[in-house]
Amino acid sequence: MRGFISRSLDLLTRLQIRRRVATDIRDIKRRVVDAGERRERYKIDVAKPAAVDPRLLYHYKKATELVGIDQARDEVTNILLGGGGVSSNNQNGSIVSIVGFGGLGKTTLANVVYERLKERFDCWAFVSVSQNPDMRKFFKGLLYELGKNVNEDALDERQLIDQVRKFLQTKRYCIVIDDIWNVSIWHMIRCALPDDIGGYIIITTTRIFKVAEQIGGAYKMKPLCLDSSRKLLYRRIFGNEEKYRSPDEQLTEVSERILRKCAGVPLAIITIASLLADRGRNKMEWYEVCNSIGSGLEDGQDVENMRKILAYSYYDLPSHLRTCLLYLSMFPEDYAIEKFRLIWMWIAEGFVQHEEQGKGLYELGECYFNELVNRSLIQPLYDRHDAIIEFCRVHDMVLDLIYSISSEENLVTVLNDEHSTSPSKKVRRLLLQSNMEGHDIPCASMILLQVRSVVAFSLASNLMPALGSFRVLRVLDLKSCSLPQGCDLKHLGNLFHLRYLGIGKTFRALLPDDVGNLRFLQTLDVVGSNFCSLPSTIVQLKRLMCLCIDQNTRVPNGIGNLTSLEDLSTLYICDSSNITEELCHLTELRTLEIVLFPADIMEDLCLLTEMRQLYIQLEEWNVKLLECLCELPKIQELIIMVITGQRNIGGLDAWVAPRQLCVLSTRNSTWFSTLPAWVNPSLLSELTGLSIAVKELRQVHLTILGKLPALRCLEIEVDNMMLGILGGFVVGAGSFPCLLRCRLRYFVPPVVFRQGAMPRLEYLRFTFSVCEIASSDGSLDLGLGNLPSLQSVQARLVYEGASKEDVREAEAALKDAAEMHPNHPDHLISTGDITKGALPSSSCFSFLFSFSFSSNHNLRLFFFHVPLEGNY
């Protein structure tokens, strides 16, 4: 009875409190409406003091004060005057849109080119747009700059556009439109600029790459080189006009560190130079400034101006992207942040909530990530094959802004060896970056009840709080540190709100069984932990969407219960397991990486009978895998490897890849009989990475591959020599428009590159037969000079049947082609016998070099086995 009475009173009390809160909310809404009505009724508005745009100061710098801009100025000038390049040209004029990170000097470059070219035209103008432009004011300013005054204030935007068009209709003009943020604004401006005249030049600047692409002629602004950065820094500090070396040798080391942090951004260099000029030549004070870069702690007018300039990009973001950007302060400076790790953290925090039609949470988070890249706020880092964006990095100046705003809003609390956020605040997100025992600000003194994220780097045992002290923790990331001996995971199962769990190197052999209690867990990343196996309780995690494990970690039976799983890598499958059948139930999978290891067979690989059994088991496994893949319609990244190096033929011939496929790597697991019919540009428009082995490849197939619009990395192995197909291959003009890396394995006939083929190719690896060249006209012109972006080339010459003289001539011809190339690419030329050195696939003798497109980690394997028979 007492319990009933207590619960009844508690219910009545809560209802009374809720009623009071609802009444207060209604009262606040009524007052807001009244205030709005009064403002509209009396037309009262409070005038804000006009703020001086700090970017305006850099527009009037003398040309003699500019450093490192000569090359960019000449490039843009050459493009505008029809010297080729990226401009959007027609027969009457050209447009270049300079795009880059805030403070990189876009306006300065545009102004230098403008001053250099404007006298060649009848009229010229330099006008700024900014984020929220008054278009009437803009067009009136444009007319004024062109030399025509407009006094009629009653003219609307359409009438002003007509006046601009009428004025420019018969004139050659040069116009700079600075700081465009919106494509729709550009379309309106473009209506006022006629293009049916004798000649015009339009230069625009923007921080947003998509805007630059829409305008046309995107020119990506480059940072200053180290020498120019050093020159600018010392000139600003010491006033040296001729000598650019630091007058004090003791300052050389710290100044180099500062320049590395500034990363060639002129605004950053100038800002830091103004701070150093006030420190004199005190080495320790210079180090203090260096350590404060990217921490958000340094103050001063110049620092504030720099933050204001960068803040234009921040405040132009939608609210959800602002939060995602500020969350990057959870990582230390210069840290390469894994893309998938960051997106899953955003999802766990609830920053990515609303699913669009046809898009899951991760895909929506990927759109957020790409938008931050597009706005030049984070720098993308591609994987080692340049196929996909694997990491990102935040420039120290942007990080300084993020830390500053994050500190104001108490978003992240930082604990490291150099500085710490005040522990008097309630901690919401905690970054631990210290390996100092006995730190003077232990976590025990902080209020941790509201902590939502904990990310640790180089963690000392006294800094890691007990897991039981976190009540609402959503993200626990310990991947970047080794857990100290004093840390324990025994309370892990009590973190009921946990969505993201990342564990790197630990002192435990197994993950605790109570991990199965984490019913809301979405991401489990234990790569690097070297767990032998996962506990059987993980099959209870019905909401798990991402599972990342080491290649030697076994998963328990019942993994098919994880029907929400979208990312699974790297899945270890032995020949006796039934995991393949369970994969059929994971219909939401987007990323799947598999390593097959027939353990029973590998005990005695030297016996030929065991090799035959291995082929039989691989064929059986491929049948099961084919059935499984047909049940996975959402696959975007698929990587399959066989540890033994043996591959069966035609195991995946019947598979049809889904349209959204981005990465496919099966070269180390199976042979396709020929190029699959579904490999064509109409079906795989999003394919960026392809690594396959094809028994028979013909010219028509290579032509089809060349039309894939998004392909960035290609590795293709053929067996044409075994089939006697000796016809040459030609890569025609316009083929492979986005390809950056290409490896053509065992293309024994030479591959010839025509003018206009592979315009962006940087790395090329290929094989051809010297004998084949010698039996034809004897010339060796593969067209390497037609690859304008080539940086590195490696060639393997198969010398079987060729004389030593033919081999030497072929080597010399390739070396000459590389040395005569305008880029002088690195080159490596090797020779081998196709019967022994080129490793035919039908032989028991084989090597395996893995070529993994994994977005999570790279699997590098080398395996070698020799049969009992044969003279190898």
Automatic annotation (TrEMBL):
NB-ARC domain mapped to chain residues: 90-227
Highest taxon listed in the record's lineage: Eukaryota
Cross-referenced Gene3D superfamilies: Helical domain of apoptotic protease-activating factors, P-loop containing nucleotide triphosphate hydrolases, Ribonuclease Inhibitor, Winged helix-like DNA-binding domain superfamily/Winged helix DNA-binding domain
Matches recorded under InterPro entries: Apaf_helical (IPR042197), Disease_R_plants (IPR044974), LRR_dom_sf (IPR032675), LRR_R13L4/SHOC2-like (IPR055414), NB-ARC (IPR002182), P-loop_NTPase (IPR027417), WH-like_DNA-bd_sf (IPR036388), WHD_DRP (IPR058922)
Residues covered by the Disease resistance protein winged helix domain: 330-402
Domain Disease resistance R13L4/SHOC-2-like LRR: 450-826
Keywords assigned: Plant defense, Repeat
GO molecular function, one term: ADP binding
GO biological process entries: defense response to bacterium; innate immune response-activating signaling pathway; plant-type hypersensitive response
PANTHER family, per database record: DISEASE RESISTANCE PROTEIN RP, OS12G0273300 PROTEIN
Protein name: NB-ARC domain-containing protein
Taxonomic lineage: Eukaryota, Viridiplantae, Streptophyta, Embryophyta, Tracheophyta
